[in-house]
Amino acid sequence: MKNGITKVLAGAGLVVFLITMAHTPGAHAQEEQAALGPQLSERLRTLLREEMNLIQSGMERALIAIAAGDHQTVYENGRDIYRSFILKQQLTEQDRRELMAVAPAGFIELDGTFHDTAHKLAKAGRDEDPELQAFYFSRLVESCTVCHARYAGDRFPGLSRLGESDSGHHHH
Description:
- The protein is mostly helical and 172 residues long.
- It has 7 helices and no strands.
- The longest helix has 27 residues, at 42-68.
């Protein structure tokens, strides 16, 4: 039952967010949208996959906690997502050089923004502010969606239209 509720809430949250989200091009809007994964070594692909799995689990738990008013769990999962930041953890100097040579600046920027937002989610949990928790959770989903559209379109073809739009406007 709990797993079913998790899937329903996660799906509903994503659908609502995608309907209302505005694609906001930044300084890197003109970057070529190419799949990043195939350009990376197996080691870096594995690290990114591990990070994505940790993030997915944390976001599922955070969504349920937000809906339940479980501020401590929101705090813990926001903190854990923030700490999953691979660029500050497991990368060797050689890994760093490889990533910087392959990853566009926009990817690095989106990753940093994502983790900063996770930190803000954790603070909103600590401060027991459900409105800010929902806001920062939606920003996390936005970061995931934009990054996947730009740099992992091969894995997420359903987001291809998002990556094509440079208007910065959404329609209802």
